[in-house]
C-alpha cells in the first residue's frame, strides 16, 4: 500500500511570514503523496474586528454567525489558502487549494443546537476519498482550509484538526496514512514545565498509563482522544511536534500508534 | 473533437443572490464539458472601503496595490468563489474553485510599469491545459476567479474576460471550445438605444462593416477585439448576451465566428 502523509499546521505558523516560508520549504521536501491542512488563526479575528464584526464567544468557544462565516470564508478559503498555494507552486509543488465544497471532498452536518448554538459549524459526515485521490493521482497536492459544506449550498466552519483526522481516516481506504500535527510544543511532554521531556512513543498501553498518572490533561486530552479515534479507524500513525519533525534527521517528537 | 463551453459571468450577476441562483441553475443544465469564470464586482470595493482601504483609480482604472490584492484574494478567491462552488454542489455539479495558482493553471506576468503602475495586475502568459484537463476528465467542473499567479509565489489580479478567453485558447488544443460572455445586454446591438436590435451573427466580414459604420464603439470595441483574437487562436465560437442564452430555446444573442 502506498503511503500518504497528512500535515496539519495551526495559526501560529500561518500568522508569521517567516515561519510559514520555513514550514512550506520543509513541507515541499516531504517525499511521497501528501496533503496539507491549515487553520486560520487570529487573522480572521482581526479582519472581522476591522469590519466591525464582534467575535462572539460562549464558554470560551467561538460562535460562527453568518457574518463570521463570511470572514472565515474570505480569510481561510481565500487569503490564507491561495497564498499558500502560490508559495507552494514557487517551490515546485503542484498545489491545489480546497474547501470541503470543492470536488465535494468533505461533507458535514450543521451542529445541532443543544445548550449552545454554535452557528455555522459543521461536523464531518463524509470524505470523498475517490475524488481526493483523483487529484493526488493527477500529481496535485491538496491544501485544505478549515471549511466544509453541507451539500445543500451551505459552507460550514470545521476544526482543522478534525479535518486532518477525517481526511486521514477517509484516505486510509486507499493509502497507509499518517498524520503530522505541527504545533508549538516539541511533542507530548512528560513534564509540561520541561519542553525537552518529549514522550517519543505513545501506544495504547502507554496512553492508559499516562492518563492514569494525570500526565495528559487540559487541551492535550481531546487531542489524544482524537488521535486514538483516528488510529482505531484505519490511520496508521500520528506524529505530534513542531515543524522540525518534517526534517529527515530530527526524531524529537511524539509518535502515536495503537 | 469533444466540445468545451467556457461561461463567463460579471459582477452584476454575482452581486444579486437571486440572479446568481437563477444563473447557476441555468449553468448546471448546460450539457457537456464546461468551465465557469467569474469576476468579483463591487463587493470587493465595499469590503475594501469597510477595511479602510481606498480604491485608487488612474484614468478610470483600478490600481491593485498590496492591500487591494489581499481584499481581491479574500473576496474573489474566498467568499465569491467558494459560495459558487457550494451552490453548484447543491445542483449536483461537482465544481472545483480555482485561482491560476491552483494546479498552476494560469501563469501571468506582472504588468510592466509604463505611464501607469497598475500594481499587482498580471497579463496571462501560460495556461496549463493538460492540468485543467485532468480536472475535467476527473468529472470536475472548474470555477475560475479572476486571480492568476507569477509562478514565483505572487498572486496577481487579472481581468475575468481575459481569463475566459485565455483559458478557451489554451483548451482549444484539446477541445472544440466556445465562450459564453454573459453581460447586461441581450447581445451586440445594431442600435444602442434599442435593446432588442441584437445582431445575431458577426463574422469577419460583418465585423469590418460594423466597425466602418461606427456601430461598435466604446466598451464594445476591446471586447470584440478580444473575441477575434481568441477566434484567431483556436476558439471555435463566441456568444455574447444575457444569461438566457444558456437556455435551449432562446436564440436572441450574438454569435461571433471567423
From TrEMBL, chains A, B:
Substrate binds at residues 40-41, 62, 157. It catalyses: N-acetyl-L-glutamate + ATP = N-acetyl-L-glutamyl 5-phosphate + ADP. Its EC number is 2.7.2.8. Keywords: Amino-acid biosynthesis, Arginine biosynthesis, ATP-binding, Cytoplasm, Kinase, Nucleotide-binding, Transferase. Residues 5-237 form the Aspartate/glutamate/uridylate kinase domain. One of its GO terms (molecular function) is acetylglutamate kinase activity. It is an enzyme of class 2 (transferase). It holds the Pfam family AA_kinase. InterPro entries: AceGlu_kinase-like_sf, AcgluKinase_fam, ArgB, Asp/Glu/Uridylate_kinase. Pathway: Amino-acid biosynthesis; L-arginine biosynthesis; N(2)-acetyl-L-ornithine from L-glutamate: step 2/4. It is found in: Cytoplasm. Coiled coil: none annotated. SUPFAM superfamilies: Carbamate kinase-like. The record marks 8, 223 as: Transition state stabilizer. Belongs to the acetylglutamate kinase family. ArgB subfamily. NCBIfam families: argB (TIGR00761). Catalyzes the ATP-dependent phosphorylation of N-acetyl-L-glutamate. This is Acetylglutamate kinase. The gene is argB.
Amino acid at each position: 500500500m502506498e503511503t500518504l502523509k497528512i500535515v496539519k499546521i495551526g495559526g501560529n505558523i500561518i500568522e508569521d511570514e517567516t515561519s510559514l516560508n520555513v514550514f512550506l520549504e520543509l513541507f515541499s521536501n516531504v517525499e511521497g503523496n501528501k496533503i496539507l491542512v491549515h487553520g486560520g488563526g487570529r487573522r480572521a479575528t482581526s479582519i472581522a474586528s476591522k469590519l466591525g464584526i464582534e467575535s462572539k464567544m460562549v464558554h470560551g468557544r467561538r460562535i460562527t454567525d453568518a457574518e463570521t462565516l463570511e470572514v472565515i470564508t474570505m480569510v481561510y478559503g481565500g487569503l490564507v489558502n491561495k497564498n499558500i498555494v502560490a508559495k507552494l507552486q514557487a517551490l515546485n509543488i503542484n498545489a491545489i487549494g480546497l474547501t470541503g465544497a470543492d470536488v465535494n471532498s468533505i461533507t458535514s452536518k450543521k451542529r445541532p443546537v443543544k445548550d449552545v448554538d454554535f452557528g455555522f459549524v459543521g461536523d464531518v459526515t463524509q470524505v470523498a476519498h475517490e475524488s481526493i485521490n483523483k487529484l493526488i493521482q493527477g500529481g496535485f497536492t491538496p491544501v485544505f482550509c478549515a471549511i466544509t459544506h453541507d451539500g445543500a449550498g451551505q459552507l460550514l466552519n470545521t476544526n482543522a484538526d478534525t479535518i486532518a483526522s477525517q481526511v486521514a481516516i477517509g484516505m486510509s481506504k486507499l493509502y497507509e496514512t499518517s498524520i503530522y500535527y505541527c504545533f508549538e510544543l516539541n511533542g507530548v511532554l512528560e513534564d509540561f514545565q520541561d519542553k525537552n521531556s518529549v514522550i517519543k512513543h505513545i501506544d495504547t498501553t502507554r496512553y492508559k498509563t499516562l492518563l492514569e498518572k494525570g500526565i495528559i490533561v487540559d487541551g492535550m486530552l481531546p487531542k489524544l482522544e482524537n488521535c486514538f479515534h483516528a488510529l482505531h479507524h484505519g490511520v496508521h500513525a500520528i506524529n505530534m511536534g513542531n515543524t522540525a519533525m518534517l526534517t529527515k534527521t530530527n526524531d524529537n517528537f511524539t509518535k502515536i500508534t495503537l
